[in-house]
Predict the structure.
Amino acid sequence: MTPEQTRSLVAICLLAAFADGNQGADERDHVRKVAESLGREVKIDFIALYQDVLLGRFGLEAAAAELGEPNLRQLAFELAVGVCEADGALDEREKQFLERLTEFLGLARPVADSFVREAEAVSAAPAGGALAGLPGRDAFGPAGAAPGVPAAEEFERIILHAAVLNGALELLPQSMASMAIIPLQLRLVYRIGKAHGYELDRGHIKDFLAAAGVGMTGQYVEQLGRRLIGGLFGKVLGGAGRAVGSQATGSAFSFATTWAIGKVAVQYYAGGRTLDAAALKQTFSGLFEQAKGLQARYAPEIAERARTLDLKRLTDELRGG
């Protein structure tokens, strides 16, 4: 992709992030920091782009006009859908945004609508469902064990599995792979909370993650940026299908985020939910840095998981609960 095309893709993602008008100051600040971070790694001034989008100087039609190739236009649409879906079901403003984007990109309406329905089904996957893709047993504790809080080793096993799986998803070129990451993180928190006697709904889990500094939209935009930097989307444009990319920063980011989410959730619910937002953010930040060091140890396992991962089966498991 040319720098202009990359800039347009990111602009469309930012416009999608702000389409519902509900992003709070923390979430906007996260997206801004993502733009600053990306700008230090590639030859594009992402923070200037962020400001151009926020102030209306670079709009949707202009961004779409830069994307001439059909597969690049389809990719832009898929990325925008993922950003809109990251924080939950589409609202009316997001639906209107995607309709306008479909028109500006010149996409066939039935194809666009079909992708939106598939993405919505993954995004709305029940948080209380099984841990999709988990080998062996799903529940905490050995099969047939008496109910109760599981041993620390079981938490470690479940959290590491989820982190490896989400790291592997970032190595797949399909947009739907990235869309599965957040539902899997929600499901991980649900299972940890339930193991400690708490019945959680999606709203509570999202509030918990936001308090820890993990904004859903910001996280998804950051995932997309890392994939762009790692060149993984080039595999889509080049028609390489399921080819696994290099052990790129996007995989490390998703592994570390998921591992830290699981670990901070154990501390929070084991402690009776007494940690305040400041303590949650500090704890998550420290665990995230620790997880970045762990990722290299598990890189071969992540790569092998990506090679054997059946994405359709995984998303079907998510949708089925």
Summary: The mean pLDDT is 83.
